[in-house]
Specification:
Distance between the termini: 67 Å
Order of helices and strands: EEEEH
Length: 96
């Protein structure tokens, strides 16, 4: 059985499902305080379902890094020239 620890602010019981895993053990990290309207913090030891070999392989493969040229393409610039803006007036905000 493979286990992991999941931290949550919501109260669950042993046997319930959290993140697709079954809760095996519950630990209270910070107890709830109803007088201050605060939730508690809980650590759940959960049983992780075994992964099939084909699923594991798909997660471990790395995608090839995209090749970038040293100079960005002409279309990647955000700012436009006054001609591209349709010769509209560019307003300058005076300094304070």
């Amino acid at each position: 059985m493979v286990t992991k620890v999941v931290r949550s602010r919501f109260s669950h019981e042993v046997g319930e499902k959290v993140e697709g895993c079954t809760i095996v053990e519950v630990r209270v990290v910070i107890p709830p305080d109803p007088s201050q309207n605060r939730r508690g913090v809980y650590d759940y030891v959960v049983e992780v379902p075994p992964m099939a070999a084909s699923e594991h392989e798909t997660h471990t493969r790395k995608k090839p890094a995209p090749t970038h040229s040293a100079e960005p393409s002409r279309d990647s610039y955000v700012r436009s020239t006054p001609e591209e803006m349709g010769n509209r007036l560019i307003r300058r905000v005076p300094s304070r």
